[in-house]
Amino acid sequence: MLTQGKFTITQNSKIARDVFLMRLAGEHSIATPGQFVQIALDGFYLRRPISVCDFGDGWFTIIYKVVGEGTKAMSTIEENTSLDILTGLGNGFDAEASQKPLLIGGGAGVPPLYALAKAFVRDTKPVRVLLGFNEQSDVFFADEFRQLGCEIHVSTVEQSKYHRGFVTDLLDKVSAYDHYYACGPEPMLKAVYAACPVSGQLSFESRMACGFGACMGCSCATRYGSKRICKDGPVLTKEEIVWQTPR
Questions:
Q1: Dihedral sign computed on CA atoms, order 71, 76, 77, 80
Q2: Cis upstream peptide for 234 (omega within 30°)
Q3: N or C, which end of the chain has less CB nearby within 10 Å?
Q4: DSSP class of residue 205?
């Protein structure tokens, strides 16, 4: 359920290269891991869509990467500042689809998998997590997943203390998963889609204007007709995805 409200920043700190964690206090309508929020920023016409990392009664956490002027401005906002935010956006993940889940995240796609992992842990399901980043300085939340009790493997494209390669190269380190949940850049999602033999759910990133399905600006083709990433997604099942051919 979409709601709009004022939220107070209680933390806004850097946790990796160009990556910040923001914790906000206020009553929200976030109910499912994988949902996102839309944040209004002074001086910017469009709200910024950011996935939810974790949430509870009266608070939620987001993790965002500075990639443009909007997120750069966010990184400078001080604690105790109030923000106008739309919450409860998107469909989120269906955790009931798996008994032995595999979570696969790439870069800025990692945060929504944390709340999902917590949900699986609460249900005493074994959780395996694969995280992929470009460099060691980009890595974040590996320890937090480990502290939940997840089996975790990390890869970086550049040489580091972690496995060198893409996140899909880590698939041979896990077995016995019956469903996967993936979030990250589209090239990574395509690679996961091709490499994993079981069914799965993939969370897509898309440019959004309204964030709740009114403008139709983030529509995409699926096997079951056109869907809006902000309203009908951002999570789509493996079976409904139609990959678009670049023009």
A1: positive
A2: yes
A3: C
A4: P
pLDDT tens profile 176-190: 899 999 999 999 999
The two structure tokens encoding residue 102 = 């595999």
Domains of the chain: 3-89 (2.40.30.10), 95-198 (3.40.50.80), 206-247 (2.10.240.10)
Rounded average pLDDT over 30-40: 97
Span 113-149, pLDDT tens digits: 999 999 999 999 999 999 999 999 999 999 999 999 9
CA Rg value for the chain: 17
pLDDT of residue 210: 65
Look at residue 85 and give its three-state secondary structure: strand
- Please state, in angstroms and rounded to a whole number, the distance separating the CA atoms of residues 99 and 218: 32
CA distance 212 to 86: 9
